[in-house]
Write a structure and sequence with these properties.
46% helix, 10 strands, elongated, five-stranded parallel beta sheet, 314 residues, homodimer, alpha/beta, DNA-binding
Chain lengths: 314, 314
DNA sequence: TCGTCCGGGGCAAACGTTTATACTGTTGAA
DNA sequence: TTCAACAGTATAAACGTTTGCCCCGGACGA
């Protein structure tokens, strides 16, 4: 391996000068700079990242954990994160937690070992081992995306879930519906609870609190199908269904199709997220759009803000 | 920051012993081991990754570059990669190249700087700066996924694209079709060329080489729509369309629906990949299934094989 | 009694950078 | 002529690990 020493020897300068040429070129005279650069190219030198990290205590890497990489909602957020991080000269280390506490732990430890400068976690649960970091007075280099749990004490980028759910329901009441079914996500997440609160509030304001039926889902297509089955098994069937994400809505469309219910004639369905495939369903899915790329970019902005001290409160 | 020195001091041993307790515990007596472990927990010590990397010349990270993270095909492969890597104790650094040479370059340099132990690239183009590595006698720690360019000299995990395309076309001819439209991916990629070769071969063997029409796509839904528009603008319209991926097939379904062509009655459509949403389209999409997770896992297996010397030829 | 072997553990040298500090020679002002 | 200021560069000390080598003391066989 060719090191800074080899370059220094060939250019007949000290390693300090080589280092300066590479990081603060303006502090080196033109002539020397030329010689060093020439040596760098001739030898094909590239600085060793670990040595640099060790010296500077910085890695230029951001750790991102997500419950499910293959979910099109998350993958767009990741894309936004990657884009923003790359623009700022950071690389992204990606971890899939599968909602598994042990995996969260393993990835959390990476931060402790300083394998990354900060952590962005998507979803609502965070590695326990990091609580030691967040307890300190200053903000830890950790931010949350999509959800918001005030108790964690970390900044977060997310939409107004309660307001959005309120709007979705308003839309349905506006169409004249009275009996509305709601398929939620796991209620362990604040996100689902916020949306449920918004939906309930809207139902009450429309005087239809009793006619709203809530069933639980887990954001998968299959749970959308199962939810639809339960909703339509009731004595008074809902004429509209609000799903907390698009995949469950796709499941509802699928089930409706199978039992011969036509959408939108005899059933309205509204989803959440606006994933790319939503508009190519037949019928095209009505949905609440979330700016996934922007959420991703914003988490990066927040995290870098924490790192350089310009963001100081959750 | 608490270092190995602090632990050594507290446990009243040398740093060498602490290091051994953490990496080769069996070489340390039970009593000493206990004392060290106790000190580790009391101080909340976790070893600094950069220092370790510097010393061992190893990072336990795998760099993965992909043309489009948000593409459900790639995101499943990434999930397979992450799963396999995590199981082997490696973390994944993810880069989105957007098919952009400069980004490929930037990520390629990470390997040169030793920010990762190896590279998995999905797609067909590889950073130029890495050619210096692949030219050497031994195999570079680089593997390819999904495609295969013999000229690159790197191992690759991919399906038999030519054979699969042949099968897809066979299926259509079996249904009685004679005029078949084909929407390809960018012909710059060997993958597209392989599939095209398979399709052409099948057409010839069925004596329908002249009735097969080929138009170019870029794997996006929009290019599927555009391709369909061109195919159906011809004097003799195809009665079946074979798309080189599912998203373009979804575009064809969309276009057919808009011009009032019913599928599958008056048009057959077949896609490629079997992404999760394919089966929820109406009508459900017929498609060639690819084992995305397995392709991802296999790239990891190959790469680790190269790293430990058990894989020695592309 | 002596020599040999071995388990357990310490010493210290790397690994490849960055950067505070010190040094040198030149320039310009007094 | 003297000296301060400054630009440009070198010296060397970190950064936190791992690991080859050596040393010590006890066990064991001859």
């Amino acid at each position: 391996m060719v090191t800074i020493l080899d370059v220094a020897a060939r250019a007949e300068v000290s390693t300090a000068t080589v280092s300066r040429v590479l990081s603060t070129p303006e502090k080196v005279s033109e002539a020397t700079r030329g010689r060093v650069l020439k040596a760098v190219h001739q030898l094909g030198y590239s600085p060793n990242a670990s040595a640099k990290s060790l010296r500077t205590l910085t890695t230029r890497k951001l750790l991102v954990t997500v419950p499910d990489i293959a979910n099109p909602f998350f993958s767009l957020i990741i894309q936004g994160i990657e884009e923003a991080a790359h623009r700022e000269g950071y690389a992204v280390v990606l971890g899939d937690t599968h909602h598994d506490a042990e995996r969260e732990e393993r990835y959390g430890e990476m931060l402790l070992r300083r394998e990354a400068d900060g952590l962005i976690f998507l979803g609502h649960s965070m590695s326990k081992s990091l609580s030691s970091l967040t307890k300190k007075g200053r903000l830890a280099p950790i931010v949350n995306g999509c959800e918001y749990s005030p108790s964690l004490g970390v900044p977060s980028a997310h939409v107004d879930n309660e307001g959005a759910a309120f709007e979705a329901m308003s839309h349905l009441y506006g169409l004249g519906h009275r009996h509305i079914g709601v398929i939620t996500g796991p209620l362990a997440s604040p996100l689902s609870r916020d949306r449920l609160r918004g939906a309930q509030k809207c139902a009450r304001e429309n005087g239809a609190g009793r006619q709203m039926t809530v069933v639980n889902g887990d954001f998968s297509i299959e749970s959308g199908i199962a939810g639809a089955a339960r909703l339509f098994a009731q004595e008074t069937q809902p004429t509209a269904v609000f799903c907390f994400n698009d995949e469950m809505a796709i499941g509802v469309l699928d089930y409706a199709n199978r039992i011969g219910k036509s959408v939108p004639e005899s059933l309205s369905v509204i989803g959440f997220d606006d994933i790319r495939f939503a508009r190519y369903m037949r019928p095209a899915l009505t949905t609440i759009s979330q700016p996934m790329l922007d959420i991703g970019r914003e988490t990066v902005r927040l995290l870098l803000g924490v790192l350089q001290g310009s963001v100081t409160s959750p």
